[in-house]
Structures are given as C-alpha cells and as structure tokens.
Specification:
There is one protein chain. 41% of the residues lie in helices and 22% in strands. The chain is an alpha/beta fold and 305 residues long. The strands form two sheets. Strands 1, 2, 3, 4, 5, 6, 7, 10, 11 and 12 form a ten-stranded mixed β-sheet that branches. Strand 6 and strand 7 form a beta hairpin. 43% of the residues are buried.
Length: 305
Amino acid sequence: MSPRVSIILVNYNGWKDTVECINSLNQINYSNYEIIVVDNASVGDDLLQFQNYEFSNVTFIKSAENLGFSGGNNLGIECALKSKSEYILLLNNDTVVQPDFLNIMVSKAEENSIGVVTPMIKYYDRKDTIWSAGGKISKIRASGFTYGFNKNESELNRDFYCTFASGCCMLIKSEVIKNVGMLDTGYFLYLEDTDYSFRIINAGYKIYYAASSTIYHKVTSTTSRDNKLLPLYYSVRNRLYFAKKNLGWLSIFSLSYLATAFLVKYLVYNFDNREYKKVLIRAFSDFYNNKFGKTDIFELKKTVK
C-alpha cells in the first residue's frame, strides 16, 4: 500500500478557495490520504459553509484564535502525527492540484534521504507561468528566494535538489518533523518556510524539486486582501528575526545589509508613501524589542495613521 499522507489546509475567511482546493484533491489518483482543514478563527461563517458539502475524508479543526500560517499548520501537524501518517503535506488552501501531483512527490520522497519535496507551483490565472520551482536561501539577504519566478514552465522542467521549499506546498516526511520540530510561531506570517527549510537542511535532510508535479496558486489571495501593510511588516521583521536566530556571527553582515537596504526604502517611502515608511519603523522597533508572533491588524493600522 502507498504511504499514508495527511494534507493540511489552513483556512482563514476563504471557504470558497478551500472548497475548490478540496474538490481538486478529491480528483487525485493517490488513494491513501486524508485532508485536515484548520479554520484559523475565521470571522465569517466558513464552518457553516463547509457543512453544505459532503466531504467524507476531511477532518475540520476550529482554532479559538488566528494562529497565523505557522500556528495553524502546527495544529494540523499535531492531528496528522496522531493518525500516524508517514507524510504530511502543507498545502495552501488557495491552490488547485493536478491529479498526479501527489503520486510524483511521494515517489521522489521515497528515494534516499529526501526529507521534503516541493512541486512546480504555477499561477492559477496564468497556467504556463511559474510562481515557484524550488529555491535557495540567501544568508546575506536573510530570506528564501524561489527559482523560476515569472518564467515559462519549460525553463525549469527538470528535477534538482535545492535549499528552499515554499510553504505553499511542502511534502514532509513525518520523521523529519519529529526530529526537526514544528514550525516557529514567532514568525506568524512569512519566512516560516525559510526558517523551516534552513532547519531541515541543517538536520541533514535534503529538499527536492519535482518538476513534473504541478499545482496552481492564487497568489496573495488572503493577506493582501486583509491589509496591504501586513506583508511589508512581517517580511521585514521576520527577515531580521531569521538572521538573528539562525546565522550566528554571519548575522552581523546580514543585519547590516538589511538595515542599509531598508534605510534606502525608508528614504524612498518618505517622499512616496508615508504609511509604508511608518511600517518599516514599526518592524525594526518590534524586532529590537523582541516582539514576535502576531501583530494585531488594527494596532498596525493605528500605528501608520
């Protein structure tokens, strides 16, 4: 029998996307899987909406509060580990998948010491254009960067090892999670996949890009809809956090680079967009004061007025 896979979807005010994702998953030709939907304290009637559909292989978990991408996935991972799945797939709820995507990833993961497999992720509305095809971690820039961004699918149609897998779709061996641990909730949003990829590589596992496995992603359908300032805040603060946490003495160079880069952005935003300028100040301030995890969206809006 094929290895058991637990597929985790984190839902936040996006039940329509989640339903479309589940429907596509229920068309795959891999049989031994379950779907775990973590509702991350949606403010609407998402759970009631889900009741209108007959999903026989879906477990719904309701979080009492919004735990972010990392915390929401951790709830799902805890459930998956109890069911003794051999693989855990983190999958964005705003994706749809090809019928053979999971077969391909599992077959690659079964080879050697591959700990994580990531597919070719293409745009939902531009199905011949790549959004992510594996990637690498830059220690100086303190972030993960995808290969193939906005390139034609034909340009990265070969498999290879890499050092970064987007949290949009990561097939992870349960053994890896047991050895490396959960996602770091200090990030809340953004960079948690960079941190996790870094920890996985450092633990001696490999990350593999499987070009023939394909999914489609509705890019930034949730966070940017809620507040255009959140991606800027979390990406800046969390890059600083990643450098401090993971890079040891190299963090001196990384933090210097980031401070210089964001100073330039600050000067530009000073004349162009004062909201963005104030968010940069807030991100550096929270990093300096060791304030990580969730930042309240309304508090952040008050900051930039």
